[in-house]
Design the sequence.
């Protein structure tokens, strides 16, 4: 393990790995990624890996659009010898109240003004896209063809391998147990396998980012929450887009299996990741109602991962003002994978003081103190 | 089984051979979880009932550990593949 580094990244998920790659690409020589378990074993490897650009705030749309532009070229950009399994079947968002239709119509206007070609369609038109959709209770839908899905393991592995080729050191099963600060400046990262002298640390620790923050006395407004997923046996292609609404999402992967989940508002704060039978049954009920064809398809496995929520469901990006050299890429609120490509690019530019591809000032942690929350209306 | 026949199918659900597993171990995927995520080995309908023991033996061999020291990937519910319609009915009946 290196004993000196220009930048130490804590967390071997998509945010940490894509930042490591971009730092090295921009010429930063000594970059170390520390991961307490195996790579992409936290939220990244447990996510549903949908990606969309269709948000309700301009800044979120732009961040997601940038990520999308990188994602569609990622196999080539990273010279990946496997495949990130990109599927662009679109996002079909089911709207079931007049209020939702009104809000999403407004979002579409914004999205269209930014070059995102989303559109409002009828339930009948939605059935042309997904013939097995139950139209009952659906007032209208939004559809955006360019949204889709990737394999989160392959995306992360692609970044990890590209970063390694550029000289990044990735230490798995290496846990950060402390961070030394001298005169309000980062000086050293202490792990269970040794110490690394450094003046710059990126906290990309997902649901554990709050603990990392506390190591340097920075309290982060993060709330990790369990989210569960169910996956079925693979079957012939039946559903092209991600079918989503406020309390349900379901995507058929290129492999043929269906991946589905929903957010449970009663879920308490915490990082425990046990599966529940309640989820399995409730999930099946919602799935069979919206896509009745699923009733005859078998559930194979369920698991849980964390959404790391912020007060405004938008990520915290940029330097932490209290400690010099302490950077944050945390609180993705369930969107770490879909924003991963732009996160890596922008965090690397920010850490190296380069010209920014997109300004990220609005994502700074200071927004909570200033009361400038990024209230995102379009999150499920 | 001839353990040196690298065309032997290890994971029947995902069509992964002994050679595939050995190649991935050589590329640095040295735990069951890492192998599973990169190759889908053990993610199919049988949930690793066929391949788990074989992959563990290969990992033990490659890392010089005893098979009892190889960490097993998490066993996840449901125990048996179950139709969503049956589960949905269970939800309705409470």
Sequence:
């Amino acid at each position: 393990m290196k004993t000196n580094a220009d930048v130490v990244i804590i967390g071997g998920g998509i945010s940490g790995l894509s930042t490591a790659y971009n730092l090295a690409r921009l010429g930063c020589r000594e970059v170390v990624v520390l991961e307490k378990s195996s790579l992409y074993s936290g939220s990244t490897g447990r996510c549903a890996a949908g990606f969309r650009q269709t948000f309700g705030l301009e800044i979120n749309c732009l961040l997601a659009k940038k990520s999308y532009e990188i994602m569609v070229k990622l196999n080539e950009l990273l010279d990946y010898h496997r495949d990130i399994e990109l599927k662009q079947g679109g996002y079909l968002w089911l709207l079931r109240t007049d209020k939702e239709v009104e809000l999403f119509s407004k979002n579409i206007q914004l999205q269209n003004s930014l070059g995102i070609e989303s559109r409002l369609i009828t339930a009948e038109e939605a059935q042309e896209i997904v013939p097995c959709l139950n139209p009952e209770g659906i007032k209208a839908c939004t559809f955006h063809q360019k949204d889709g899905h990737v394999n989160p393991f392959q995306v992360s592995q692609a970044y990890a391998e590209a970063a390694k080729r550029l000289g990044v050191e990735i230490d798995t099963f290496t846990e950060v147990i402390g961070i030394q600060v001298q005169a309000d400046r980062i000086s050293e990262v202490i792990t269970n396998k040794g110490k690394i002298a450094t003046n710059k640390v990126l906290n990309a620790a997902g649901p554990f980012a709050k603990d990392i923050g506390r190591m340097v006395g920075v309290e982060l407004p993060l709330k990790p929450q369990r989210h569960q997923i169910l996956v079925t046996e693979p079957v012939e292609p039946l559903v092209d887009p991600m079918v989503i609404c406020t309390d349900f999402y379901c995507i058929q992967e290129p492999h043929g299996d269906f991946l589905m989940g929903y957010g449970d508002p009663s879920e308490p704060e915490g990082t425990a990741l046990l599966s529940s039978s309640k989820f399995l049954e409730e999930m099946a009920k919602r799935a069979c109602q919206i896509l009745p064809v699923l009733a005859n398809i078998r559930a194979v496995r369920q698991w849980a991962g964390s959404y790391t929520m912020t007060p405004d469901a938008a990520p915290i990006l940029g330097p932490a003002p209290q400690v010099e050299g302490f950077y944050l890429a945390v609180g993705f609120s369930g969107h770490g994978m879909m924003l991963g490509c732009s996160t890596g690019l922008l965090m690397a530019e920010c850490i190296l003081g380069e010209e920014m591809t997109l300004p990220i000032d609005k994502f700074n942690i200071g927004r909570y103190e200033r009361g400038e929350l990024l209230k995102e209306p379009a999150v499920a | 089984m001839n353990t040196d026949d690298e065309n032997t199918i290890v994971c029947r659900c995902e069509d992964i051979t002994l050679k595939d597993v050995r190649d991935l171990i050589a590329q640095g995927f040295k735990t069951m979880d890492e192998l599973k995520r990169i190759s889908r080995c053990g993610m199919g309908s049988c949930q690793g009932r066929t391949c788990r023991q074989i992959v563990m033996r290969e990992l033990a061999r490659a890392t010089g550990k005893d098979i009892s020291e190889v960490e097993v990937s998490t066993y996840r519910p449901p125990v048996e593949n179950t139709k969503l319609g049956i589960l949905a009915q269970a939800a309705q009946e409470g």
